[in-house]
Amino acid sequence: MTVNEVQDAIIEDFSVFDDWMDKYNLLIEMGRDLPVIDPGCKTTEYLIEGCQSKVWLCPSFENGKIFFTADSDAIITRGIVALLIRVLSGRTPAEIISADLYFIDRIGLHQNLSPTRSNGLLSMVKQIRLYAIAFNAKQPPAV
Amino acid sequence: MKDISAIRADFPILSRNIYDKPLVYLDNGATTQKPKCVIDAATEVFTLYNSNIHRGVHFLSDRASEEYENAREAVRSFINAGSSEEVIFTSGATGSINAVAFSFGERFVGRGDEILISHLEHHANIVPWQMMCRRKQAVLKVIPVDDNGELIFEEYLKLLSKKTRLVAVTQASNALGVILPVDRIIGAAHAMNIPVLIDGAQGVQHGVTDVREMDCDFYVFSGHKIYGPAGIGVLYGRAGLLSELPPYQGGGDMVKNVTFEKTSYNDLPFKFEAGTVNFPGAIGLARALGYLLSLGLDNISQRERELLEYATGQMHSIKGLRIYGNSPHKISIISFLLKDIHMYDTGMILDKLGIAVRTGTHCAQPVMDRFGIEGTVRASMCFYNTHEEIDRLCAGIEKVISMFS
Fold this sequence. Notes:
A: mainly alpha; 6 helices; about 50% helix; about 10% strand; globular; B: alpha/beta; seven-stranded mixed sheet; 17 strands
């Protein structure tokens, strides 16, 4: 699935709920289902600053693609980072850098995007892009 | 006291819906909502007499200056200062503390001197002193608190010394709600001729304030936390002390004569009000104070005490809820955590239920460190809140518990 196909699937998942509580229940569920992170990744090196809840985001690079694992001490934040992973993990740096994350707005999470918002969704997106840019720079130039 | 539904009708925002649910506003410790008379004051200033104060000879400037000075007198009377020259308008409590930290530091603090604060301070009453201490090579000392969040008075007495230049403490903890024994704190400091600054940002809005009876040397508060506009605040200082301090900002209106060689400063309070001050804010603040007086300050105290008691009782009965700051002397703030549930998760769900609370460290990280936590959920109530709203908060908390367990 492409980045946009995954985003559309997420929008579809959320579209069945009108009520905020149901949307958040879904986020909580996704947070609970997020695979357990390697304890070695829960260090300050992988901690994203500027979040009221702690978020650890751990990248790895295999066959030209970046994979992310993550954790948070708040479940809703885990749900949010789980969504980002669903969309952006296992992608090439170019895909990540060029991704237009319209699903955030469409499922009503845009209010979490402002720089002052405490859950740091913006910081997470920024960090994922920074990793992509860094890995991209390390790759041999395309022939 | 005026009927609660009539009081609520004075605050237009209280009748709005959030996510299709009636707003329950329990973040009054962060900022309070504004009564219609304060909202109208802004319109009035800009519609009828907006003009720069203290400068013009024309009608509008005269009128604006008069309203501004009336506002100063309203503040003087509200806190019972001895004279209006002791009332300086600033940008807020933070601005006031920074002003004292600079001016007092310049005049009275030197290498090795000590400034005493408590462990309960808001960052606004920590960082300006740290900055001043660094500049003056002075030392910042901290009065510890016990497990209930109460100041340990014997430790305070031990910390007072010949080196102490100033004691700066909050009237009540913004993070826990615990009230400090300011009268005793001031008494002990004055016995050693040490002046005291009281941060009234969480005190002044809850009842009668009398700076002369309290006998403090400086008293500061913010307009927006006492139902007035943001961007305006007050620094009260004893005239004798204020006149000894150098100004902290230079500019227009704070001077008598300016040449390139020498400038002579204006008298109090203007010496400390450089530039065009926030006169619309000051006028709005005066309206807010007038509104509180019309309700009766003792009535406000009584109602908030009763709300705190009711909320504490209801919340204690929720299994897994722990309250931080279990002192019998509190303003109407309840800081809590739900067992195993992150404060952020709690706050997010309460928000979606239309309930506004604050989560995090409340700009008081040392308090959180003292209790070994990263933050709390804080419900801060005031006189316009109701039992029904507290019931909705409790039902919301139960909902959070059921969603996350």
